[in-house]
C-alpha cells in the first residue's frame, strides 16, 4: 500500500493544513494592554514615577511622586515623628545591602553634604540639639 504525502493521520495533519514556513501562526500578535486592563502593579508604578513640580526647601523642583513621599517621610522623621522614622528604617533594612559600607553605597559622594539651609533645619530640630558640624567648629577658630 502506497502512502500519499497529502494524507494525514493521528498527530500528522495533511500538508496543506500544516504551518507554512516563514508564516506566523499568529500574525497580529498578542494584543497590547490598554488603560482598561492594566494591572494594579503597573498602575501603581506609573503613578509613582509620574513627575510633577513641587516646592521643596523654598524652591520649585521637578520630582516624582515616590520621591515626594520619601522627602516628606524624611522631613517628618527629622521633626521627631517616630512612625516616619520606623518606616524609613524598615525600608533601609529591606532594600539597602548590609554587607557594604556606607562609603561603598554612596559611591564617592560625601556622606553628609549639607547645605546651609539643611544645617539650619538640623540645628532647629530637637533630635540634634547641641550637635555641631565640622565646618561650624572650624569657623569658630
From TrEMBL:
This is DUF5681 domain-containing protein. Pfam families: DUF5681 (PF18932). Residues 1-41 are annotated as: Disordered. It comes from the Bacteria. It comes from Reyranella soli. InterPro entries: DUF5681. Residues 16-95 form the DUF5681 domain. Residues 1-18 have a biased composition (Basic and acidic residues).
